[in-house]
Design a protein that fits this description.
The protein is α+β, with helices and mostly antiparallel strands and about 425 residues long. The chain has two domains: about 240 residues, BirA Bifunctional Protein, domain 2 (2-Layer Sandwich), CATH 3.30.930; about 90 residues, Rossmann fold (3-Layer(aba) Sandwich), CATH 3.40.50. Helix content is about 35%, strand content about 20%. The strands form three sheets. The protein has an eight-stranded mixed sheet, sandwiched between helices. A hairpin with a 5-residue loop joins strand 9 and strand 10. Helix 1 packs antiparallel against helix 5 and helix 5 runs parallel beside helix 9. The longest helix has 17 residues. The chain starts with about 30 loop residues before the first helix and ends with a helix. The structure holds adenosine monophosphate (AMP). Adenosine monophosphate binds next to strand 6, strand 10, strand 11 and helix 10.
Length: about 425
């Protein structure tokens, strides 16, 4: 996980460093990413999701229209640039608009529906860096286009839930809400605005602004004073039209059938403009049942595709935050799996021996035996010290004489015994020896 200073927002002006809020994924953290991607891929493929990798840069207009101009992401957080050709492009702040574009552009509308896809990769948001909030982070994303049935969003929730479980993350709760559709949300918004206007003077400055452009967002403001006001606000769930009400009822019934733990959160509205009906988050809980951060967020977005074409394509999806999942795995000592350690070390004296060793490494690679070396060292004792540190079982030594005779010394690192073999026999010999271990 990011450990460098740039994650904490500190940045020395005289040094070249990674951009604030962005970090190197160091070798020791790679197994976590591989494990999450591997588990995600295995489980979502099983449920019929196919992998798609959209470009990291997309036209700025895609996100302005798709994510929504009144959202925090579009207003404040996009990394946008003008190309030399004069195009306005943006580093994706989320996957969903890219996938809606790909669905239309690639003619997926003529495939059997729903079209279910998964993706992995970096996303970019110019947020204030803090623990668990980065400017470049990674998401594991699922989307399903072309079905309005509640079973499809339940399947997405189920797949995410199963991925987290398979990673060993056990204490999870699904928070859910329905924010209705264009019909019911319009009437509800009027009611909400009427209520909030009465309390406007107590709202934070952001919410005063939201009241004019996106009043629903006030429902999930993190400021204590706004939270207090929201407690008394009308709840959308009581104002859903019949279709939205029945849809949400079905979602809850399916979750019950699957035995998934969920709780209704009337303040969950999610930050993006395109959501309709079901919105959800999957949250990790600690031993005492206290809610830790959100690991996955998503929902239904039946009106998004319509923003880019005349076609009405109901859809739903969600995204898991890879760094947040890694943080929980680390906190709970969930090991992503051992990285294999070399059991053989190749030591050599002189250039002829070094080049022979390099050739030999390829034979070991093909035989599936991991071999370490330190080509940069000349002295044999320094190389063997290195072998000791790595705790290998055997060292192979090619001195100048061995190189000229095409021989290799095999040194047993436990008892110090040495034997000589022909170079072309060494891989087979080592295979035998390692099998006996
Ligand atoms: P969103 O795309 O905002 O719905 O977020 C989906 C998931 O991505 C969240 O549940 C978090 O796990 C993760 N996430 C969102 N924003 C950030 C961020 N700035 N840094 C790290 N993870 C994030």
């Amino acid at each position: 996980m990011p450990a460098s200073d740039n994650m904490t927002g500190k940045q020395a002006s005289n040094k070249i460093q990674a951009p604030q809020g962005m970090f190197d994924i160091l070798p020791e953290d790679q197994p976590f990413y591989k494990k999450i991607y591997g588990t995600g891929e295995k489980i979502s493929s099983f449920y019929g999701f196919k992998e798609i990798t959209p470009p990291i840069l997309e036209s700025t207009e895609l996100f302005e229209k798709g994510t929504g101009e009144t959202t925090e992401i579009v207003e404040k957080q996009m990394y946008s640039l003008k190309t030399k050709g004069g195009d306005s492009l943006t580093m994706r702040p989320e996957f969903t608009p890219s996938l809606a574009r790909a669905y239309l552009e690639q003619g997926m509308i003529s495939l059997p529906q729903p079209v279910k896809m998964f993706s992995f990769g970096p996303v970019f948001r110019h947020e204030k860096p803090q623990a668990g909030r980065y400017r470049q982070f990674h998401q594991f994303n699922l989307e399903a286009f072309g079905s309005k049935r509640p079973i499809v969003e339940v399947e997405i929730i189920y797949v995410f839930y199963n991925i987290l479980q398979a990673l060993g993350i056990k204490k999870l709760i699904i928070e859910l809400n329905s924010i209705g559709d264009k019909e019911c949300i319009g009437d509800y918004k009027k009611l909400l605005v009427r209520y909030l206007k009465k309390n406007e003077s107590h709202l934070c400055s952001d919410c005063k602004r939201r009241l004019k452009i996106n009043p629903l967002r006030i429902m999930d403001c993190k400021q204590e004073r706004c939270k207090q006001i929201v407690l008394g606000a009308p709840q959308i769930i009581d104002h859903l039209c019949k279709e939205c009400h029945n849809h949400f009822k079905k979602v809850l019934e399916f979750l019950d059938e699957l035995g998934l733990p969920y709780s209704l959160n009337p303040c969950l509205v999610r930050g993006l403009d395109y959501y309709t009906r079901t919105v959800f988050e999957i949250i990790a809980e600690d031993e005492l049942g206290r809610r830790l951060g959100s690991l996955v967020g998503g929902g239904r977005y039946d009106d998004l595709v319509k923003l880019f074409s005349r076609k009405s394509v109901p859809a739903c999806g969600g995204a898991g935050g890879v760094e947040r999942i890694i943080a929980i795995m680390k906190e709970r000592n969930l090991n992503p799996g051992e990285t294999p350690e070399p059991r053989v070390f190749l030591a050599q004296l002189g250039d002829a021996a070094k080049i022979k060793s390099l050739k030999l490494m390829e034979d070991f690679r093909k035989a599936g035996i991991l071999v370490a070396e330190s080509f940069d060292r000349d002295s044999l004792s320094a190389q063997l010290k290195n072998a000791d540190k790595l705790k290998v079982l055997y060292s192979l030594i090619i001195g100048e004489e061995e190189a000229s005779r095409d021989m290799i010394i095999i040194r047993d690192m436990i008892n110090g015994r040495q034997t000589s073999v022909k170079t072309d026999k060494v891989v087979g010999e080592l295979k035998k020896k390692l099998k006996q271990q």
